[in-house]
Amino acid sequence: MLSLPANWAFRGGVRCWRHRAVLRGALKAPDVNGVRRYSTPIRGGVAGMEDILARVVAPLPTYETRDKYPPPPESNSLEFMHFYAGLEKEEKLGFLTKLSHDFGVDHKGISELALRLLDAQLRALATILQVEDRLLYGLTPRYKQLLNHISRVEGGVKFLVDLRADVLEMISSKASETPQIRDLNGTLKSLLSEWFSVGLLRLERITWQSPCDILQRISQYEAVHPVRNWTDLKRRVGPYRRCYAFTHATMPGEPLVVLHVALTEDISDNIQSIVREFATLDSEEDVNKVNAAIFYSISSTQAGLQGVELGNYLIKRVVRELQSEFPHMAQFSSLSPIPGFSSWLQGLLGQCKKEGRGSDLLSEQEWEQVEQAVDSAPGPAAIEALRKLIATGEWTRSERLTRVLEPVLMRLCAWYLYGEKRRDYALNPVANFHLQNGATMWRLNWSADTSPRGVANSCGIMVNYRYYLNETSKNSALYLQNKVYMYFFCSFFYLMLV
Ligand SMILES: CC(C)(COP(=O)(O)OP(=O)(O)OC[C@H]1O[C@@H](n2cnc3c(N)ncnc32)[C@H](O)[C@@H]1OP(=O)(O)O)[C@@H](O)C(=O)NCCC(=O)NCCSC(=O)CC(=O)O
């Protein structure tokens, strides 16, 4: 029995009183994602939650009647959606905990079926297969059929995407770490991965002629290089630029993942040349100037679709689109930020200061140059001075210090990207994304993002992840199965200096 905070029942009671009042027509129920109001009154508090769940989460049909059982009424789905939409954040935690705990897999039934499978091992293969199929069916959580039915009502898929976003937030914030909540996340992810498979996605090119609300969403969803104004946005969908999004029939007008591309002569080493400088040409007159496609921003817009790998699908699909538009194009690369490098470096400097050992980071000669450049005494004082300068970005104002720090920061950044791991994969999430896709860590670029954000996040350094099209499948398998990173030696020679 789930124990909820004592006041929950009261608050829930008040809320459910409001629901009841709404249902009697006393108040107009707000439509939720276009979901029509349900018609059955509900009791308040935990009892109200149990009442709702017991009523709308229908028991799994028996194995024998599983294909013949009539689907539950649509009102069950609507009632569940409306009830959930009316809950506060902490109430949703309680509700989803109860759903996942009490309406999941019948574990007792599974253990009985597992014993039957063991007993059947000496029987005919047909019998074994039949018992295995029963076991497989028995492993279906009771709530899964409700989720399937919800996906068929208007706004249902978007509701489930947002529901998974709530579940992911509960897991990442450690508000809930139960295995049942993880199971609920797994079930939602597998359903969403089916519904958002690449064959069901629609590739849309976004141009200045696209509907205003789409352009507005593209602008607000841009998570990597924020759009400053309409002029900036017009540039990003204008000449020598491409902007693509995947959309889905169940979520019309909602770009699910957005990719911004610059069409250039060579592989770009600087983001300001892409998002700051304005083109002098009004149209793409000289396509011979276009030899490379630079992916300079990719953003998933639906938190609930994390792990569905829409970004990977989109990059691969856009490459094909560009190859058909520019048959001679042979260079496909990202120009990616390196979020986390500066904070990682600050942590290292803090450790060095504590242990009074800076020699791991900089050579004696480099430290001497830094001490002269920052006019500091050697040892902890120099380390602290360097920490402050990097934290504020002040170091970029000193040519002398910049000259001293370039080889140091490039060397440390190469190691951060290549050597620092999380569960044997790249620690940096952007590196992990592109390496998962089969890209090669191709080139580190100094002073590639001189914006305050770029200097603060990664000391202004950016990286190209190069897509060698004939090698991405092999590279992806090597990375995912063997944790082997592909990097281009001569651009990452800094690694040899580590
Ligand atoms: C990068 C994404 C589009 C990937 O989304 P997908 O749906 O394709 O993939 P996914 O959700 O399965 O995640 C795949 C991997 O992306 C990596 N990843 C990268 N950035 C992440 C982020 N901010 N949050 C969560 N994961 C992130 C993770 O390591 C994850 O691996 P795992 O699941 O194993 O942990 C998205 O994560 C996102 O929108 N991130 C925020 C914006 C951003 O950082 N964009 C990339 C910047 S580089 C850039 O924009 C230029 C360019 O390179 O194009």
UniProtKB/TrEMBL annotation:
Pathway: Metabolic intermediate biosynthesis; acetyl-CoA biosynthesis; acetyl-CoA from malonyl-CoA: step 1/1
GO biological process: acetyl-CoA biosynthetic process; fatty acid biosynthetic process; malonyl-CoA catabolic process; regulation of fatty acid oxidation
EC numbers: 4.1.1.9
Reaction(s) catalysed (UniProt annotation): malonyl-CoA + H(+) = acetyl-CoA + CO2
Enzyme class label: lyase
Places the protein is found: Cytoplasm; Mitochondrion; Peroxisome
GO cellular component: mitochondrial matrix; peroxisomal matrix
UniProt keyword Lipid metabolism present: yes
Entry keywords, A to Z: Cytoplasm, Decarboxylase, Fatty acid biosynthesis, Fatty acid metabolism, Lipid biosynthesis, Lipid metabolism, Lyase, Mitochondrion, Peroxisome, Transit peptide
Protein name: Malonyl-CoA decarboxylase, mitochondrial
